[in-house]
Amino acid sequence: MKKKILLLLVAAIVLGASGAAYFGSHRSANGDTLTLYGNVDIRQVQLAFNGSERIAKMLVKEGDPVKKGQLLATLDTETLRQKVRKAEADREAARVAAINAANTYRRTQMLVDRHFVAQQQADDARTASDAAQAGLHAAQAGLELARKALVDASLYSPDNGVIQERILEPGDMATPQLPVYTLAMTDPLWVRVYLKESDLGKIRPGMRAQVATDSYPDKRYSAWLGYISPTAEFTPKSVETTEVRSSLVYQARIFVCNPQGELRLGMPATVTIALGQPAATDNEHCPNP
């Protein structure tokens, strides 16, 4: 019985230590490197149309890489094109009416100058001309809105990334509140790690780092420390031990280059930072592929 209790205590200590190591950090024996453990993180964008209409085409699917400005989907544009044609006709009618009203005012004012008609008639003609000009401006604005709605019938990718989820299909009714795709942006990409307070004085933004993963154990990815949270937080609750979960840590982001697209969201990663390195003289960035 005592032997079983002893084994359970040893197992609990091992689990606690492994949890602390995963979300914590440790230094090498000679104190010249800091090793951090975390997960790959990316930004996700919910893409939606800026209009309400039936979806006509969905041009990409889950897993497809997309480029910034690439066309992803389109709405049925027949009704929108009719609205543009109507707005163009309304604008032309308003333009003719404004010209006619301006000519009427000019002729009326000439008659007033010759004392053939009363000044009131010229004032009325001027008021009508001003109203016609305002109607022209309103018609022009209506045309621009109709054209904008037609442009918004096409959904483009805001940045480079990978389609993570295709939510709607052709024939579905799209609205600005209903996402069509979820886009996982491939740049920037970072490893989310947590620093102990005792490590804050040893590192600073801009320090170069190396990232390794279990999936590619022989490969190292160039990285740099891009962000350290200004506020402390408790260690994430996914750590099971009470001792580690109650520790205050600081979230940091290690931005990493991923030219081959091998790093994925949530992938465990190990970050190594050489301590004592000189301050970076410029902003780090990944080279163009």
Overview of the structural elements:
With 289 residues, the chain is an alpha+beta fold. It has helices spanning 2-23, 78-113, 119-151, 242-245; strands at 25-27, 33-47, 53-58, 65-66, 71-75, 154-156, 161-166, 173-174, 181-195, 208-213, 221-228, 233-234, 248-256, 268-274. It is built from 4 helices and 14 strands. The strands form 2 sheets. Strands 2-9-13-11-10-14 form a 6-stranded antiparallel β-barrel. The longest helix has 36 residues, at 78-113. The two termini are 62 Å apart. GO terms for molecular function: efflux transmembrane transporter activity. This is Macrolide export protein MacA. Residues 188-274 form the CusB-like beta-barrel domain. It comes from mine drainage metagenome.
Number of strands: 14
Sheet/helix structural class: alpha+beta
Low-confidence stretches: 1-23
Distance between the termini: 62 Å
The CATH superfamily title of the largest domain: Efflux pump adaptor protein, beta barrel domain
Q: Biggest β-sheet, characterized?
A: 6 strands, antiparallel, barrel
The CATH first-level class of the largest domain comes to: Mainly Beta
Continuous helix count: 4
- Strand fraction equals 25-35%
Helical fraction equals 25-40%
Query: What CATH architecture of the largest domain would you give?
Result: Beta Barrel
As for the number of domains, it is 3
Assembly context of the chains: single chain
Q: What's the overall geometry?
A: elongated
As a whole number of angstroms, the C-alpha radius of gyration is 33 Å
What is the element string, with H for helices and E for strands? HEEEEEHHEEEEEEEHEE
What strand line-up does the widest sheet have?
2-9-13-11-10-14
Query: Kindly state the mean pLDDT as a whole number?
Result: 84
CATH topology title of the largest domain: Elongation Factor Tu (Ef-tu), domain 3
